[in-house]
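ENTRY TYPE: paired fold submission
RECORD: A
CONTENT: sequence, then structure tokens
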Amino acid sequence: MKTTQTPIHSGFGAASTAREVLAGVDLHGKHAIVTGGYSGIGVETVRALTRAGARVVVPARDLDKARRNLHGIDVDIVPMDLADPASIDAFAEQYLSRDVPLHILINSAGIMACPLTRDARGYELQFATNHLGHFQLTARLWPALKRAGESGGARVVALSSLGHRYAAVDLDDPHFNQRAYDPWLAYGQSKTANALFAVGLDARGRAHGVRAFSVHPGGIITDLARYMSEDELKKIGALDENGQPVTDLDRGYKNVQQGAATSVWAATSPQLQGKGGVYCENCDIAQLVGDLHEIERGDANRSVGVCRWATDAKAAEGLWVLSEAQTGADL
């Protein structure tokens, strides 16, 4: 049964940390993969999962950076580049060769608001990396997810963003071949795609015990903001006058420990047993707010809720068909 996009009043909130939401959760014997697990909130996500007992694999494009940032955390670091389909296939084959289930897949890696860049296939890089790369990875890992799902349950968590409000997915021109490129529209489209991916995957996975969720982690200043200037970040209130990241929960700005919480909650919480296909924020299922074309970009983190276009089952099916065609991957 499809889960209603309605808050369940979990008892957690914007201030909750990954460690807090995992209190009392035992993940010993569980296997997890966290893309982007060596940067920003990904490091905190990995730290929390390993502390609870999970065995975590972190795919990494930059192996040296991964080793530095994850020093002291017991993880496996394996090469993978989300913008390289062959690299994704090689990573998945390596994981499947371990002959272990995959209980948790958190698709946390991403890029934001970069200049127009295309991969070797001619695909726009934000859509290709944030969505298509994760689509292909999840499809290739499906046997391990299904194995975990049928022996107790598996969860896939796609990191979306409140930035999904900038744009729906243009299924006719996802790569900006006909329309003018705007880095924020491209980012918004990719984040809507992340949310719709969870809808489509949950519809296919629930019969096999595989549930999917998308999450908005909050506004956290990490390497994700590398294409924004310091002045831009100050203008939207993300940095203070000294250039330091702001933590202001009333406006959606969190620290990394708080930013990792919703991903970890969606991946592990018993409160979500039997649920899936929904967009979550602040460690709860988000409220549905309609489609807000008029929202100002600088105000995005001051609002909560998910647009209808990011939860629409018909749009999710259209995106799924497009994604299969553009990646050559399916379940």
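RECORD: B
CONTENT: sequence, then structure tokens
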Amino acid sequence: MTLLELLTLLRQRLVLVLVLPIVCALGTAAYCWTKMPNEYTAETSIYALTKSESKEVDGIETVTATDLSASQMLANDFAELVKNEQLQENTAEALGLEDLSDYKISVVSSTTTRVLKVSVTGADPESVALVANKLASSIGKTAVRIMNVKAVNVISKAKTPTEPSGPRRVMYTAVAGMAGLFAAVAIVVFLDMLDTTIRNDEEATELLGAPVIGRFPLDKVGRG
């Protein structure tokens, strides 16, 4: 099937091609705006630096390349530490919560920096900020105790978000509309494959493997 033939088919079933994407998009939009609650995300950043091999130059303590390398590894260790079940239980207990199952906790670290970003997502904007800050504090205390780290500094505390971070309702609606369009095209092509009607001389020649040698005109009813 050529592109021109496909466009012809779509034009013949234009109602289906237009209605199905609209229905899918409207249905998804209705679900997103009525059934999916707002989500809020708070983020805090912490900074890890080891100074086991630091030197003093003119009375000022400096950081060596070894320190930087070790700190980068620590950032990756913290990324795993924040996922620790015991750490999360202690954080929840300190906040008077049963657990942190209602929150999505994500950690972003980089091998080129010593900064670790902890994000907490939940339904209540104030609670996500509290959880993020308490979690960062728990990480620092645990790291000092078990990782031979002198201190973990919080670069920026999590603030109460003023706008929801999700769900991405517009994106979901757009994806549903595109899915409806693809489904409409697939249905049109499928219906055309089921249609065995011979529409022109070319199809007859291709199907029968013989040339067309004549035509019989159709009598139109009502002509005298």
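NOTES ON RECORD B: The first helix runs from residue 3 to 12. The chain has two domains: 3-34+168-195, 37-156.
STATUS: closed
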